[in-house]
Amino acid sequence: MTDPAALARIADLARRDLPEVLADLRRLVELETPSNDKALLDAGLDGIEAWLVERLGAPAERVRHAGGEYGDVLEAVYPGTGAGDVLFLCHYDTVWPRGTLAVWPAAVEGDRFTGPGCFDMKAGIVQGAWALRALRELGLPVPTVRWVLNGDEEIGSPASRPHIERAAADTDLALVLEPSRAGRVKTRRKGMGLFDLAVHGVESHAGLDPEAGASAVHAIAELIPRVTALAAPERGTTVNVGVVSGGTGRNVVAGHATAQIDVRVQDPAEMPRIDAGLAALTAADPRVRVELSGGWNRPPMNPNSATEEMFALAREVAAGLGADLEQTAVGGASDGNFVSALGRAVLDGMGAAGSGPHARDEHVLISATPHQVALAAGLLTAVAAR
Ligand SMILES: [Zn+2]
């Protein structure tokens, strides 16, 4: 269902609602929710839930899964009036530490709404609720919507992953309301491995007794080029050694050194190759021991047939709203990667238009916001009418 008259009414409503959407965005941005601050995450999720209930009423089903040291996961289900089950995948944590808001308050500057976490991804949460409100007001069919709000996405979703995978198990579409890339939908994301290399050598005095030592720093310096040689940019595989540390003093043969490695892959077949390459790392000096830890955080996301079908539908909706919808590939992973690996349809980056995620110039483009709301609403009602 991509009835042009219905889409025009959706677009009108989204334009009318813009001031309220922006007021809600300010309200959510003003709830600071850094991934590593349990007290703020708990209070933030309380505030987001209260807001959600104000906007959409009490959900038919509601569970708050305890996250332990990580943010809790809120699952809320709003039954549909039409066909289909859609998962709204949203994270409420941000990369911004406690106190950021005091030096960088939410503000409107021309066509930009700025503030910590506005683009990634408080705006997506707000837009999702307003898309549903628009469909209700117009009496258009709505699919059943299951919200999953997690608070540990920015640190790899250690606590929320099983909840996401269970909630997504038989969904028709996971709408990941993460930021868009210049209005484009992300249908391809790289998978990500987080590996740690620890090198254990033998300490000694660098002047009096050098041959008694076996330097962990010298060994890791030899290992790093072998790590970076595992990159294969032509296949989309990148390797970055982001942090290196080791040693205790200039005149001490280093007993210990570590390296933090970030690996990104587009092709799942690259994962075992990287695993084997890292596992094969040994130092030339037999007294030096190399220890590898960490592993794959998220698998790569590549469009499956269900995603392609949903992208085609979203494209039709966008065209009905007078816009072209493009898809794109990005190097960053999201929770969409987990859902895609289950073979379900995933449209990621269906949230805000803007730029600067994780950066001080993070902002949402105000003039593009009604279209993003209308696109989500149009797609939802198209799914419900299938
Ligand atoms: Zn995000």
Describe this structure in words.
- By secondary structure, this protein is α+β, with helices and mostly antiparallel strands.
- The chain folds into two domains: 4-190 and 301-384, Aminopeptidase, CATH 3.40.630.10; 191-298, Alpha-Beta Plaits.
- It has eleven helices and 18 strands.
- The chain has helices at residues 4-16, 18-29, 38-56, 100-103, 118-138, 161-168, 216-228, 270-279, 305-320, 336-341, 369-384; strands at 61-65, 73-78, 85-91, 107-109, 112-114, 144-150, 173-176, 185-189, 191-200, 204-205, 238-246, 252-253, 256-265, 289-298, 327-330, 346-348, 354-355, 363-365.
- The strands form five sheets. It has a six-stranded mixed β-sheet with strand order 1-2-6-3-7-16, with helices on both faces. A four-stranded antiparallel β-sheet has the order 4-5-18-17.
- The radius of gyration is 24 Å and the shape is elongated.
- It starts with a helix and ends with a helix.
- The mean pLDDT is 97.
- The site of zinc ion has 5 residues, from helix 5.
